Amino acid sequence: MKPRHDACITLHTLATTDRARFKSDLQATFTAAAVEELGAMDEPIPSDGDLERSLDAVGAVALDIHADGQRVGGAVVVIDPDTGRNRLDFFFVMTTAHSRGIGRAAWAAIEQRFPETRVWETCTPYFERRNIHFYVNRCGFKIVEYYNTRHPDPNDPDDDGSEQDEGMFRLEKTM
């Protein structure tokens, strides 16, 4: 499917000096979505700790997404060249660039940048209908698991199965 936006999408590896700005942009976008659904938040979403773990993971690649030379979002992917099972930890398009096809075009650019990928995996909160629609209907992911209080995420050190975390969908896309 051709994106509605005809901008030239480019990906730029995040410079170490831009890390604080990237984190701030990502947290502002994620927090805005969470506030819309859940109300006021005391802390940014995701937490600084979650972001740092992702950015510092073995195989992590942080990317700035540009449309026509303007920064419009970003992503953190974790690449495993041995297995070809790669993970999308964070993906965001700034709210000012929503609903123009930029996200779909940016995801296509990420897939092209990592052609050795056999399977992409990601997670999204149960309440993020916009994300679920994007991943499933626009990008071809399938929901393969639902983490919740009765089935905590075994790979998340912060998921203790408490009532505070009401659920995350795990999605996969086989290439």
TrEMBL record:
Annotated Acidic residues bias: 155-166
Molecular functions (GO terms): acyltransferase activity, transferring groups other than amino-acyl groups
Region: Disordered; residue ranges are: 150-175
Question: Which Pfam families is this protein grouped with?
Answer: Acetyltransf_1
Give the highest taxon in the source lineage. Bacteria
Q: Which residues form the N-acetyltransferase domain?
A: 9-175
Q: Which CDD domains match?
A: NAT_SF
Q: What is this protein called?
A: N-acetyltransferase
The alphabetical list of record keywords is: Transferase
